[in-house]
Inverse folding.
């Protein structure tokens, strides 16, 4: 380690300075220098030779004022070759204030009088020690980096490969299980549809055979009656009542054909909770789960009991009728607190989410454009006619409503938002909770006309989310 600087009175040179500097004496004992700047051998230029490091010394050996290296070795400056231009003395001191080499006269009576100065050997020793510290720190830093690269990063890489392998196995296992279940369900449904198709085909063949025979018999009966009518003499016709009666009874016994549901494919054979759940999950987790950005409520349909926001996406219930009733519009609901969407849906797949918050009374769903709008009856009341399908919440009860029939729903937690999914190709309507993806209710219905977003609010507000 470096030597500790000591304070010097530099009295050994005062006599020489008395004869060379203006012939006057100077009291150097009272000059103020920083304690770290001088040592007792401040102006002693006879330095001992540099000692060679022993075998026990560490890689970095700290320099001392008694073991400094030459210019060529240190690469900093030369002690022997530099002389002060002003005093022609050796530059063996360093001015910290001006960061330059000086001689002892510069420090005592020269331009650097009063500055912070230190011996050159002390300065060099401090710099070398500082460089040793820096090199040691760099070496430690390099060792830390090397350990990080060789140990930490290598361990991370091994862990990454292990975790990625596990994740792949997990995905493949889950995907395989889903595909397996889906293939089994798909095969079961296809077989069910095949059986149903064969049943209906058999019924159709039976009906076709029966009515073909009936049609042939009717043709023969008619031909006989026509023959009796056109070729039988009056006397024979008068006595042929029995034959005519038998032919008429034979024709009447054929009966009239009538359609029956037994001749239709039972669509329930293709209904699968598993398949519907997988399909709904694929749709609901997609980017269109919250519906189109331009989905709004139609201001023409807003009930006087509701207030529509400026953006057309929020309706708020008001218990009091407004003083100024809105202008008459055949599209407006005038009694029930209903509102409909602007866009009709008759193709493709559609989904949207309604924010219901803490509302204690609301309905969300769809309805035909032809739904009634006026009066207090069930015609314009959502869920109480054949034109509307809604999920209804009142107080603590949840139900699905259509044609005046309420089907109670089991809801585990009160949803703050209710999603609706309409798939027109499969005629599927599904209500779900977006936060958990839980299906609240689903049904299949052969919708026969374009549908509109439908909503009713009797407490607080409801908002169509983007």
């Amino acid at each position: 380690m470096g030597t500790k600087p000591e304070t010097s009175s530099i009295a050994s040179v005062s006599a020489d300075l008395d004869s060379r500097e203006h012939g006057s004496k100077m009291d150097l004992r009272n000059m103020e220098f920083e304690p770290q700047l001088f040592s007792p051998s401040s102006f002693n230029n006879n330095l001992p030779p540099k000692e060679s490091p022993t075998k026990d010394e560490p890689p970095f050996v700290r320099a001392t004022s008694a073991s400094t290296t030459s210019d060529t070795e240190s690469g900093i400056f030369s002690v022997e070759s530099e002389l002060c231009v002003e005093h022609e003395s050796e530059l063996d001191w360093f001015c910290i204030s001006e960061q330059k080499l000086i001689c002892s006269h510069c420090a005592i009576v020269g331009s650097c009088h009063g500055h912070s100065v230190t011996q050159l050997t002390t300065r060099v020793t401090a710099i070398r020690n500082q460089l040793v510290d820096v090199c040691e720190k760099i070496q430690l830093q390099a060792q830390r980096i090397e350990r990080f690269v060789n140990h930490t990063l290598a361990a991370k890489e091994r862990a990454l490969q292990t975790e990625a392998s596990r994740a792949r196995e997990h995905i493949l296992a889950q995907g395989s299980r889903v595909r397996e279940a889906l293939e089994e369900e798909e095969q079961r449904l296809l077989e069910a549809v095949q059986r149903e198709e064969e049943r209906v085909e058999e019924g159709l063949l039976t009906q076709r055979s029966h009515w073909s025979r009936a049609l042939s018999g009717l043709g023969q009966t008619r031909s006989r009656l026509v023959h009796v009518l056109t070729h039988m003499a009056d006397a024979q016709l008068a006595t042929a009542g029995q034959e005519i009666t038998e032919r008429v009874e034979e024709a009447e016994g054929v009966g009239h054909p009538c359609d029956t549901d037994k001749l239709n494919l039972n669509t329930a054979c293709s209904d699968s909770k598993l398949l519907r759940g997988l399909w709904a999950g694929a749709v609901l987790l997609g980017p269109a789960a919250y519906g189109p950005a331009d989905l709004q409520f139609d201001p023409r349909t807003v009930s006087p009991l509701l207030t529509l926001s400026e953006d057309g996406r929020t309706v708020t219930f008001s218990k009091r009728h407004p003083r100024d009733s809105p202008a008459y519009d055949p599209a407006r609901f005038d009694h029930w607190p209903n509102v409909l969407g602007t866009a009709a849906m008759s193709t493709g797949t559609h989904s949207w989410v309604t924010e219901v918050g803490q509302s204690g009374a609301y309905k969300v769903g769809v309805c035909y454009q032809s739904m009634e709008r006026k009066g207090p009856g069930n015609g314009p009341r959502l869920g109480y006619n054949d034109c509307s399908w809604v999920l209804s919440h009142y107080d603590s009860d949840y139900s699905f409503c259509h044609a005046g029939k309420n089907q109670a729903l089991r809801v585990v937690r009160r949803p703050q938002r209710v999603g609706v999914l309409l798939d027109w190709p499969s005629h599927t309507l599904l209500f779900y909770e977006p936060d958990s993806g839980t299906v609240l209710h689903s049904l299949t219905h052969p919708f026969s006309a374009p549908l509109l977003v439908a909503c009713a609010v009797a407490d607080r507000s409801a908002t169509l989310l983007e």
User: Anything to note?
Assistant: The two ends are 71 Å apart (CA to CA). The first strand starts at residue 93 and ends at 95. The mean pLDDT is 80. Residues 229 and 237 are 8 Å apart (CA to CA).
